[in-house]
Structures
1.
Amino acid sequence: MLASQSPARLALLRQAGLTPEVIVSGVDEDAVTAPTPAELALALAEAKASVVAAKPEVQGALVIGCDSVLELDGQALGKPADAEEATARWKSMRGRAGVLQTGHCVWDTEAKRYVSGTASTVVRFGEPSDEEIAAYVASGEPLHVAGAFTLDGRSAPFIEGIDGDHGNVIGISLPLIRRLLAELGVGITELWAPER
């Protein structure tokens, strides 16, 4: 089970041979707080996975919850509230680097326990012009993603590079998921869908 409505997370899991069902948690992200961006991402992931893991229809299943925030100047930046905020954010990010923090939580509902961790990837932003930023914001894409950018969408040309896990920036760190599953005694290859 994937406790996330992110199509990018679902696509990465499918590319890795997994076929999770999606159940959106409905967690009020604004109600969750934590002292640091990394701890916030982890708290959100744990909250989302826990809500879904408590549902009767998922008993006996594994539940994966994730949440991402961009850490810039010590602040956690999630999805921008509107176009104005997205524009201001891009103007503050250009030519700089931030850290994309993604919290991951895996619940084993049968064993009634979970493990969690955070993956961190440095993102180096390019210097898009005001016109390019305006066009990107007008596309609507940055309003739906943490940090107001994606590596696999229209803002990809504005990202100079990353240091760390590419998948983590898209939404889920597959190496971290493999390690968390191993802590629960589950091999990721056991979860692979049969070849068609």
2.
Amino acid sequence: MHTKEEKMEAFGRLLDVLDELREKCPWDRKQTNESLRPNTIEEVYELCDALMKNDRDDICKELGDVLLHICFYAKIGSESGQFDIADVCRKLTDKLIFRHPHVYHPSQIGAKHPKPLPYGEDCSDDVADGMQKASTAQQVIENWEQIKLKEKDGNKSVLAGVPDALPALIKAYRVQDKARNVGFDWEDKHDVWAKVREELGELETELRRGDKERSMEEFGDFLFSVINAGRLYHLNPDTALETTNRKFIRRFNYIEEHSIKIGRPLKDMTLGEMDKLWNEAKAAEREME
């Protein structure tokens, strides 16, 4: 791996190239926060795709694409005199120090070379009042929610930190997780299944009645309860669903490829024939495991 000096040199080289492109490339010169935003979303999804595939080369490449966008936004900010990449790094570093009173004393905020507390020693300042000793990852997370409420520009409420624009599936998981961090959660995770069955029963009732509006509401409640169950068992719903999406696509592609080989369109195949091919694809996957 590279030394810190080599890493700083590589980052500086990136900033130098970005400065040149911003000045001399018509496309780069034309970009704004608004024009870059859709591309940024796409790049983040491409990174997530590489992470799901655990493709190391692709992860490295996609991380670079996301980093480019971060630096680009900072470059645009510097042109209007609002902030630059140094401000971005300093704000992030100070936030990390502030949110880790079990590692850094608050006096280290703003320090050029922040020094951590002696190992095992917690800060006793006001920022840590009412918090538990952070000896586990879960305790750190629970303390974070209290710290965020104390930050100058921090969250004004527990759920305020969940972005409105998050996809609904991820948002449900995040609001449940944040509520848990302040103690609003099931005492016994096994009890959640009664809630899941209750919500499923209410959904089935509304579907039988044919009430579309109430069915939609109950369907949402049912999904929310299933996501909650997954959270309690440490199963990320977005990752789980994406894994199933990919599995379905692989197996359906197997059926489609077979139909092409025999020269028979999918719409002309019976459900039984397709189901047989589905099971073949499933069996082939198991043999490869």
3.
Amino acid sequence: MRQLLSQKQTVDDIANRIGVSRRQLDRLFKEAYDTTAKGYWLKVRLGHAHWRISNSTLPLSRIAEEIAIGDVSYFCKQFKKHYGLNPAELRRSSQHF
């Protein structure tokens, strides 16, 4: 999944790529990570975005593109849901004086 970060791959595409059904992939992720493959995939993508926001001045639109989320408002909504703060708040708190 980390290698496919910037590609618009669905969980179904990933399941097909490794030769298992979507349902089987979800079962494997649930056992290993206590989440679905889709939930894990979003967590990986948002983790990368968190790092980029904290360590760069790239615009949010560019960071959203990097993790294959085309809609910046959807990206910000998911980011806040996952981390409890929006990307702008994280960027302000990450700035070094």
